[in-house]
Each structure stands twice: as C-alpha cells, then as structure tokens.
Amino acid sequence: MTEPEKLDLRSLDIVEDKKQELLRLFPETRTEDGKIDFERLKLTLGEMVDVRKERYGVNWPGKADCFKTIQTPSLGTLRPCPEESVNFDTTENFIIEGDNLEVLKLLQKSYLGKVKMIYIDPPYNTGNDFIYPDNYTESLQTYLEYTGQVDAEGRKFGTNTEADGRFHSKWLNMMYPRLYLARNLLSEDGVILVSISDHEVAALRFLLNEVFGEENFSAQFVWKSRKYPDSRAKTGVSTDHEYIVLFTRSDRGVLRGVERDESKFANPDNDPRGLWMSRSLLGLATKAQRPNLYYPIIDPKTGRPYDPPEDTGWRYSEDRMRSLIEAGCILFPSKPDGRPREKKFRSDLQSEFVAFPSIIDDVFTADGTSQIRALFGEDVFDFPKPSKLLERLIKQGTDDDGILLDFFAGSGATAQAVLELNKSDGGHRKFILVQLPEPTNRKDFATIAEITKDRVRRVIRNMAEEKQESLSFNARESLDRGFRVFKLAESNFKTWEADQAKDAEGLMKQLELHVDHLREGRTQEDILYEILLKSGFALTTPVEKLTVAGKTVHGVAGGAMIICLERELTMELIRAMADKKPERVVCLDAGFASNDQLKANAVQIFKTKGVTSFRTV
Question: In this structure, are residues 87 and 482 in contact, taking their beta carbons and an 8 Å threshold?
C-alpha cells in the first residue's frame, strides 16, 4: 500500500546539502549508492588538491567537535508568543528567545541566502561575560535544562575564566559553528560586521578568514568607543577603542558609502559646465615612490612656476596636468604663498557617495548608556552599543528593505537602530534578533531577553506617542513598528529516541509515547509554525484560515501549500483539499486514526490532482 512521506522535522542537514552541491558540480564522482568517490574527486580536481600535511591556518582543541556540532540537525522548534509581541499578525520583525546556535540551525531552511546584513556583538571573552554550553553536542538539551524546560542533569551555561586551560579554545568553539551557520543565511551580496575588542580580535580574524574566505575581508573599523581617557587604567594606558570587523559573502558585497557633501559645490563664476568645488592637487606618493609626479606647474597667464612640497607630489602626471590647465580646470592663486587647486565639476563625479571611513570617532558607549537611561530611567544593561552607531552601519550594509540579523542581541540596540532608520528614510528593513534568556539577578527583568523585548516595546511606544498613533495600527499600511516573539523549545512532535534501551520495557515505553506523538500543551499555532519552518517557509509567510468541507485548514502562500491539523480526516475533506490544487499538502498522521484505507486513497487522490508533495507529521 502506498504511504505518504513523513515531514522531516529536523533542521537543514548541512552535510547532505553540501554533498548534493558537490554531486551537482562533479556528477562523475557519484558512486552506485549515491555517495561521493573521494579518490575520483581528487583525480577530477588534479593539481588543485593540496595534499601537504602542513598548511597555513588556525587550529585549536575542539575544532573537530565544532564540525560535529554544525552537522547535528536540530529537533527544536520556535513557539509563537503573541501575548509578548507587538502587532504579531502584521509585523515582519522577530525577537527569538533561545540559544542562538539552535536558532541558527532552525532558520537554515527558511532563510537560506535571504539575510542582507548580519551585525553581532558577541562576548569579548574578558573572563566574566562569556555564556556557553558545556556540552556542545547536545545544545538543545543543554538549553532546555538551562531554562528549566526539562529536568537538569548538570549541563549548564557558565562563564569562561582565564584560569581555565582552554580559555581561548572555548571561545573559538562557541563562535565557529555560529559563524559557519550564519554565513549560509547571508545573500550573495550580504555583509557581516562583528564588534570585538583586543582580547580576541586576532582569533576572530582567523575564524572569519576560514569561514568566509580571506578574499572576502573588507575592513577592520576602529571605533573610538570611549569619549574621555580612563584615568583608572591599571596599565597606564587607556584603551579607548574597539573594532568592528567587516567581511562580505562574496565580491558582490559592498558598503553603500557616505553621502557626498553637496554644499561644497557652487558656481560663483557662472561656468557653463555647472556646479564645481575647489580641491587640492596634492597626491599621496613621495618623490622616491613617484618621481614623475614632481614637476613645476606653470601659470599660463603669469608664467610663475609652482613646485610641489618635498614630502608629496602632485595628484596627476605632467601630461594630465597640462590638459587640465588647457581646459580651464586649474585655479591659480592670487596670493604669493598660495598653491594651485583643481576645479572639480559635480557632473564629473559618477556617484553621490564617497568611501565610508575606517575610523568612527563621533559616537560613544556613553551615548548607548544614555539611551538606556532615557528609556528605562536607570542602567538596566552594562555597556550597550549606541543605536546611532548601528544605524550608521545598517545604512551602509543593507538596502531599504533588507533583512538584518543579530544573534547576540543584548539590550536590543539593533532593533532600535532599524526602527529609527526606517523612520528617518521611509525604509522597510526587517530585523531578526536572537537572545539567550540569561539571568540578570533583577526583580523587574529576570533575563536579558526580557530587557531586549521591553526596550523594543518602549521604542515603539515612544514612536507611536510622537505621532499620536495607536500601537494597534495596521503595520502593512505604515511603517512596521512591531515584532513577533518566538521561543526555542522542543519539537511539538515526540521523536523516536534511538539511544533508549532496546529491551522490551524500553521499546514499550517508546511505543506508548507514540500512540499520540503530539506533546501536551501545544497549540495549533505552535504546530503550524513548526511545519512552516521545517517546510522551508519564512515565519512571515501569509497564512489564511479556510473552511473546507466543514473543517478548518490553513492556506499557505496564496494556496501553494495546505496544512490540515484536523484530528478527524474524511474522504470529503481530502477531495476538497485536492480540488484546490495546491503544490504541497501536510496533514496530521493522527487525523487518519489508523485508517490505512483512507490514507492510501488520499495519496492517490492528491497525486491525481497534481499535488507534488503529500506528507504527514
């Protein structure tokens, strides 16, 4: 009897995905059982394969386990929390509470290649700011124990101290799989920016070189984070800066650039060529470097020569300079101590933008602290990034409607930056924030995730009050001022535990669990969003409730998929769903109530109507 396929409840299988890509590129390496013949692959690539035992790179204790962590699919889910959200039904922004490693795995199917920019401010590994799971191979289990969702068995999150013999290795083990998974989510023209301090900047550069490719390094910004020197510095040196490291997904990723100062252009002499500005003719090369740029410029009217300074030559070669003089593009001074300058016309400049500077020195950590105080009335979060800094970066790294991901969300400054930037330029950028519910030892905000959510609520409330708008306005008809809250949890469906005892008692326990494999206390919305996520649909995909044959079904993406969560399926309902001719159908296995005849007929009916995928869960 023909059976419908089971919906795969795992996150994206990274290994299988890479294998299929290799087989697509090198079909000649496929073995009879569908695997890859490694020796044939080496023959195919020839001299491109590096067989040396020693090569340039970075290694550390635990690196091999990082790959096991990456390759282990997640069996978790993201449960919707409308009661903690703002404009849940209409917003395209998210705040996800959970371990970011598991969340990144769960986002792989739905957001693969869709994120325009990633900004993260990870722990700097200073000895008391580092939260990590002791057991990397059971991250979901560790998280569930950490948050009290299951009985604790000793696996906890904790700090990383310099007294630990694997101080740097633990930080690398935490960061590597997260960066690896994050890269998959970036679009081909996407960028990632990572804030870091001196503690781990060298290690971070090595990691990013390996994950993104050294050729995709773009810049290492120096951010002057401290406005005034630290007089309490024990070393006698005030560390006034941090770094922001920029990598791109490919050579298509570039920053936008800073808008050119148009006020510098004018036309005081009514030149028919239009607006112009005066700029220096001095170059950057020394006389030893570019001797051809050292020559006298002759004023054609007075015959007076002008030599360049000793330490730098002119911007152009002598032939180029001569042609500019003939074209009336060189301004000669009226004062004896003056120097010739170039008359640069606005029409000659192709872009409205100039390069973004690598030093940022006009916004400080103190500004972020002031923002928190203004929103909360007190310091509820230490050393928050100022949203103005992030606004500047986001404007550089995203387009007007791109998705921005921050999986070390902290106080939620990234969300505020997105909301403020959209308000100022009318953009429709979306944010996805991920934050671990790390305890704060506060009564008002038990976890950092609570601070994250409440900060964004307050920002939205302030914006609404400024424009005298209601928080319940339709977000699709105006700026998106809302966010959906999701929380990491075990799958809504009980999975077969392969590591359970294989004796009669153990097998009976497993079979009893699967009489009804839906977890208690889970809602239809919980199940619906898990199916969307595991089927590769974004969490913002439009879902419409439909009444079909007297039953409720969910039409996804304009009817491309139908999800039926009814517990009592009928032939009439099966035929009615098939008549809508969706591409895919997902039903609860429990809906067939062990009616194998109905299940077999459903397979044939859907197939006849052109349904390409019918799965049960």
Answer: yes
